[in-house]
Amino acid sequence: MAAASSAPFIVSTAFSTNPFGGNPALVVFLDPATVPFKTLHGISLNFNQPMACFVKPFGALEAGQTEIHTDIQFVPVTGKDVGLCGHGSLASAKAILSLPEYKEKGIAAIHFRTVNNRGTITVRVLGEDRLEVELPASPPVPVSSEAKERIADVVNRAFSREVKINSILEGGETFKHVVLIEIDKSENLEGSKIGKSIFGETGYSVNVVTSDSDSTEVFASRMFSNEVPGFEDHVCGSAHCLVVPYWYKKKEIEAGKEVLAKMASERSGWLNINYDTERGKVRLAGEAALLSTGVCYF
């Protein structure tokens, strides 16, 4: 029997310092280009986290170096090819900054090159536990009348009642798999009991339900998908690629102004958001915390 390979791992949670809050991600330090995808998927299945992030190890910092460039691959439990994961990027940055060789070394930014050529994701360091990830904005576009009718029926069945729906839109370009559903704030998005798996019938793999808020946050959202454990992504960063442009336009929020948003899952998480309309970027800032460390064998 061949000797097992091994790699160090860290599980960290993004957009919260509460170990039972935010959105966890597994971060494994290995070069994903040198390991078969089947093995990466197997590791992801073993840990059963919302996302597994495989980060290529890198050497010691040079004198005066304040930025890190490395490769990353996101592998969910479904084994689907995922090119973008906001919370996984934030969790990976937190994991890197916790390593002795990089901790308290003045790192200002970490740039993750996605191995499937989806571009580079940048995470900036704002403080000891505070990080900011920059993602592409995707202003949502209208769906067909037929799709609206189908999706509205799914929403009503998921909530087990007739829901007041204000808008149904979908992502553009590389976000065609995402549907954005605004329900009235009177529907109590956070407190509603929802049949999460029913959203698998919308025809979209990512279903973002959002509503206005009278609380501290400008809006609240939840993300449902049959491709994540438990059918709900606790705090989905990439959902805000659509949600942020939508609410900034609807509420006439000035571009560049930072506002607070909430992901209203059971674990919940808070995001300070900013919409850079000139560059077409969404910035999400939040806290992160370590949950566990160790070595995985494969």
From TrEMBL:
The keyword Isomerase applies. Keywords: Isomerase. GO terms for cellular component: cytoplasm. Belongs to the PhzF family. It comes from Coprinellus micaceus. PANTHER family: PHENAZINE BIOSYNTHESIS PROTEIN, PHENAZINE BIOSYNTHESIS-LIKE DOMAIN-CONTAINING PROTEIN. It comes from the Eukaryota. The keyword Acetylation does not apply. SUPFAM superfamilies: Diaminopimelate epimerase-like. Coiled coil: none annotated. Pfam families: PhzC-PhzF. GO terms for molecular function: isomerase activity. InterPro entries: Phenazine_PhzF-like. This is Diaminopimelate epimerase-like protein.
